[in-house]
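Field reference: sequence -> structure
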Amino acid sequence: MRVAAIDCGTNSIRLLIADVANGEITDVARRMEIVRLGEGVDRTGRLSDAALARTRKALEGYAAEIADLGITTVRMCATSASRDASNAADFREMVRGVLGVDPEVITGDEEARLSFTGAVAGLDASPPFLIFDIGGGSTEFVTGVDGVEHAISMDIGCVRMTERHLHSDPPSASEIAAATRDITEAVDTALATVPGRNARTLVGLAGTVTTITALAQGLPSYDATRIHHARISREAVAKVADELLAMTTAERLALPVMHPGRADVIAGGALILKIIMERTGHESVIASEHDILDGIAFSIA
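Structure field:
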């Protein structure tokens, strides 16, 4: 069954066109555009006209590719930013006009379930798992063996933490300290609900984790085949996070694995990853290129 899955988050919008059969996904195409839909939402409570325009442009490209392939089974899920925005109805109307289907503004619980499904498919590691997805506006924490047993979504993400705390370039010590307090409180709150310290395997999802994995490996360019299911130590994560926090945006942009749309917010995401590893006590994390997008595709089939 050929399907099209779209994940629209705070920072990026992604498309997966895939053939799903016998519990396995075969990629036809994967696309990602940084549209920063959630830009300013933490401060204004609204999706800006510019952010909606950027998202529309990316979605028009996806819609054309879906139409060219004759795919009629499409599911689009929208997460943190469109949950928080007071003008989410404008976003839904725009999506319906471009894509021909309504976006599903999913709950944190549904986001967690889809992320878990996508992350554990094909993963050769020992359960129980603690899976976390660092997004632009929120981070989901999920534990389980064969399915979700505990889940919580916290309002910490790379865009939100950058806009809230990390204003200097590079961030000042006081800004990093304020972000650290905010993130630590949220992670500890999450771990009071989700027993992540008892998990045997820690799995990290989304662009923050995969980019830091690439940096820790010293890759000359972004290579998903070397990043997917790579295991990175807590020491390596801390080293990369500290280096990113000490860099300017221009210096991060010059790194060969850095997507241009991540350079200004990756340090905030790296700090979240560093603190998650510190507070859970895990010595390593497995990076996964498969996440909520794959879970959406599975859910269609």
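Note: The longest strand covers residues 24-34.
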